[in-house]
């Protein structure tokens, strides 16, 4: 009986060594190959994934230091490009955001979700990690809160803001991150309240005020935003 126990112990040790040798390997060029796994100092898994000639391929899963139950980040790497499909989760496994990354840079459309992991709270568009194109935020109903346009990380173009009933309340224009050109502000019924021009983020010229759609008085640079 004692002999069988010793044999079993030795056999399990050999299997354990064999398993360790199958992960975290380098090829003759010093490149990572096969399955790689890293742990936090507390022994919990940090990440696990696979390499081919030093390049991440397939699915990588990353975990929080406090829980190994659900990954908080899943990256699915392409073999033919540097792009990865990326999904972030809460520690409870609820979807938080998803999109693509090229290295450490976000690219293309990214979606962000409410705490239910289903309802979209915002969407953004990136080029090389910088906001470019249309960005939107939403009420829980799905009605847009804001529709913004970005260029090289700065507001550039039309900016629209909406009430929770879908009525447009702000209609603005930006150039290189600053208010520029005609601006219109509306009440919750969609009626124009006041309008005027911006130049280089400052009010300029005459601003018109309205009551029930009718002009009531002009003003010059008196309305503070």
Automatic annotation (TrEMBL):
Q: Which UniProt keywords apply?
A: Signal
Provide an example Pfam family for this protein. Answer: MORN_2
Which InterPro entries has this protein been placed in?
A: MORN_2
What domain of life does the UniProt record list for this protein's source?
A: Bacteria
- As given in the record, the signal peptide range reads 1-19
Name this protein carries in UniProt = Antitoxin component YwqK of the YwqJK toxin-antitoxin module
* Organism of provenance: Lutibacter agarilyticus
């Amino acid at each position: 009986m004692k002999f069988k126990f010793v044999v079993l112990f030795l056999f399990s040790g050999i299997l354990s060594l064999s398993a360790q040798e199958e992960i975290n390997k380098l090829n003759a060029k010093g490149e990572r190959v096969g399955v790689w796994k890293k742990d936090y100092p507390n022994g919990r898994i940090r990440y696990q994934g696979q390499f081919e000639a030093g390049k991440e391929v397939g699915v990588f899963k990353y975990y929080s230091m406090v829980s190994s139950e659900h990954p908080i980040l899943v990256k699915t790497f392409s073999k033919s490009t540097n792009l990865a499909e990326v999904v972030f989760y809460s520690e409870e496994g609820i979807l938080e955001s998803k999109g693509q990354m090229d290295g450490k840079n976000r690219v293309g459309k990214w979606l962000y979700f409410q705490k239910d992991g289903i309802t979209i709270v915002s969407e953004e568009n990136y080029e090389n990690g910088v906001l470019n194109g249309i960005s939107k935020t939403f009420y829980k109903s799905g009605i847009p809160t804001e529709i913004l346009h970005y260029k090289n990380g700065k507001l550039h173009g039309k900016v629209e803001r909406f009430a929770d009933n879908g009525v447009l309340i702000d209609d603005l224009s930006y150039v290189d991150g600053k208010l520029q050109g005609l601006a219109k502000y509306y009440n919750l019924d969609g009626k124009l309240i006041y309008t005027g021009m911006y130049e280089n983020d400052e009010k300029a010229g005459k601003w018109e005020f309205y009551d029930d759609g009718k002009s009531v008085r002009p003003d010059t640079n008196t309305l503070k935003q």
